Amino acid sequence: MKTKPDDPVVVTQNANNPLYGLTKREYFAAIAMQGMVSQNMGLNSERHIAHHSVEFADALIERLNKE
């Protein structure tokens, strides 16, 4: 099964209307960002951290789709 970046992490139901939260890509990027910030990886700006977080998320999705 392929991992699609825009698939929701969790789908919930409310009065017969599905409610979607974060996408898998957003979730993976947030987790990568959390790790970078907590480890003080030497990235000197929020833009660098955001950029690299998304790159990590995309690389993970790409890798998951190879299996």
Task: Give an overview in words.
With 67 residues, the chain is mainly alpha-helical. The chain has one domain. The chain contains two helices and two strands. The protein has helices at 24-39, 46-64; strands at 11-14, 17-20. The chain has a two-stranded antiparallel sheet with strand order 1-2. A hairpin with a 2-residue loop joins β1 and β2 (17-20). The protein is flat, with a radius of gyration of 14 Å. The relative contact order is 0.18.
Summarize the amount of helix as a percent range. Answer: 40-55%
The number of E-state strands comes to 2
Which consecutive residue ranges, at least 5 long each, have pLDDT under 50? none
Mean pLDDT across all amino acids: 83
Q: What is the string of SSEs from the N terminus onward?
A: EEHH
Relative strand content: 5-15%
For this structure, the quaternary state is: single chain
Number of helices: 2
Total discrete domains: 1
Structural class determined from secondary elements: mainly alpha
The dominant shape is flat
Largest sheet: 2 strands, antiparallel
What key attributes describe this structure?
single chain, 67 residues, mainly alpha, two-stranded antiparallel sheet, 2 strands, 52% helix, 12% strand
